[in-house]
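Pilot study result, target chain (415 residues):
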Amino acid sequence: MGRYVFKLPDVGEGTAEAEIVAWHVAVGDHVAEDQHLVDVMTDKATVEMTSPVAGVVVSRHGEPGEMAPVGAALVELEIEGEGNRRAENAAPQPKAPEKKPIAPPKSELAPQIVAPEEIKFVVAQTLGDKPLASPAVRRRAQELGIELQFVRGSGPAGRISHEDLDAYIASGGRMPASQYAARDGVEEIKIIGLRRKIAEKMQEAKRRIPHFAYVEEVDMTELESLRAHLNANKRTDQPKLSVLPFLIRALVRVLPDFPQVNARFDDEAGIVHRFAAIHAGIATQTPGGLIVPVLRHAEARDVWDTAAEIACIAALARDGKASRDDLTGSTITITSLGALGGVATTPVINHPEVAIIGPNAIIERPVVYNGHIAIRKMMNISSSFDHRVVDGYDAALFIQRVKAMLEHPATLFMD
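Predicted structure:
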């Protein structure tokens, strides 16, 4: 038998270290070759580490949330053959926790008196559960104002006796007065993995970028009519259209006239990089937190292709399968809460970009339209800009142009 030490490999792009996110094996587990051992996170992506050999896990190195440098030992395995480390030089396998002997049952002839504060009672989770008790016990509990769901029964199948009621009263047990009963307790959650990356990125963005927000109201009635028509008559192989493909189409038409908005600012070098291509970051909510996959070359896509690609990259992000290339290189970001869009937001810029656009919920409400009160489908567009690069006047003019495109949707498709 020998020992094999699996070390953190170089995952590319000059990464010097990675964060341990989640372990998938424990000490003593038998693992097969190519079995999933641990997830580690680099600056941009989560990487699954698999075992190059079969063996038994002898030790793990590092806990979730800790950083591991490239080349550091992650897992040590006992394998058939010599391995890459001699067993005598390997770290000893942790001993199994020593089991305490179980005390023999107390004799009924010599009962022990237990102080009331030492008695622990289990509170049922649902008030609708019907506990086991005799009619006499139920009647007495009712007279005392005690709900039997809160009393631990010591009889067969948890049956509650008069002695259990006495013990409950002696322990200070009380029925909660109402639904407004106070609660205590603090849950500590360690910020690791994707959640930590999000926190660091948001903190960096707010620290380095002087944000200013601009919100504009848009009449989406005509666009919503067009969208409903296209969805009703689409081919079976075409995706359902949301508002996002039309918003991206509007950005594609307007951004060439505002190159300072489709840009990234290297503030350390003092250089603004303006891009001809429009690589739209699509802020996507995943089980682990917010991820921004990238829709590349939006200027070369129609609304159908845009919708299909958004669905594809969003699914990759939610399933944790997005690659580093899928998550880098955006030039402007769109963030949307969908049906939860609210009235207005103040989105945080995706550093080092200089602008972020956020459509809000579409709401039917009365407005003045052509001199009359009419019910229209209204939506606010929220936006934030880097004031070092984009002036307020230019930002307002830019959003006004986007608004005009959305309110007259035919112009989205006209040269």
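One observation from the pilot: Residues 193-208 form the longest helix (16 residues). A full batch analysis is planned for the follow-on phase.
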